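hey m, so remember when u said the tokens were messed up on ur end? i reran from scratch. heres the input so u can diff it against urs
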Amino acid sequence: MINVTENAARQALQIMKDNELSSELAGLKIGVKSGGCSGLNYVLDIVEEPADNDRSWQIHGVHVYCDPKSYLYLNGTEIDYESTKLGGGFKFSNPNAKRSCGCGTSFAV
């Protein structure tokens, strides 16, 4: 399973509220795509509803969606939200990553 911390779930729900997404199925879509310094980029988006083949679960009050191919690379990952003096962002801790780029937005398996 992909874990979303309470802090990350709270931030995702706030983004949905700010963007006036009121669908009962609105949630956090997590995935990967080819690219980046290390080979695969993390993808994180707020969606109105899942795609037909998405895995779905709910954690800390937020729906989470992931396509089956991405799930193979992300199973066991924890997603957190960190606030810093210069801003903030979602952080992926992926046990499947053999190496990551310096900024943490791409990885290789």
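this time it looks ok to me. DSSP finds two helices and nine strands in the chain. if urs says something different then somethings off w ur setup not the seq
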